[in-house]
Design goal:
Blueprint lengths: L30 E8 L10 H9 L4 E7 L4 E6 L6 H8 L3 E5 L8
């Protein structure tokens, strides 16, 4: 697959993309997409697992968007400072059972 630098309507090239070819045309920092398996994936109540997970991620990353499909939480972040999936899992503690940035963002 060829790597092509696209110009988005002006002379500024798109420069933010990760190793997995996740192109971020509107982000100012390198994006990372996490697939997170939560202890209670469907819990979107105030103070529930989804909210608590997003708050825990925001300690070392900027959450751009997320999707909860009741089996996993897909989260796109930029400027993450965790360094590894294991560090994210440690930061989430008992909220999550698995974290992966390998498969990218899951869109339903």
């Amino acid at each position: 697959m060829a790597i092509v630098q696209r110009v988005h309507g002006d002379a500024e090239p798109v420069v933010n993309f990760d190793v997995g070819s996740l192109v971020a045309t509107g982000l100012t920092k390198n994006p990372t997409a996490y697939n997170i398996t939560l202890a209670a994936a469907g819990d979107e109540t105030t103070g529930g697992n989804v909210e608590a997970t997003l708050r825990a991620l925001q300690v070392a990353a900027t959450v751009v968007m997320y999707q909860n499909d009741n089996t996993q939480l897909s989260v796109l972040v930029e400027a993450q400072g965790f360094g590894s999936d294991a560090a994210v899992l440690t930061a989430l503690g008992s909220l999550a059972t698995a974290v992966s940035s390998v498969n990218g963002f899951k869109l339903a």
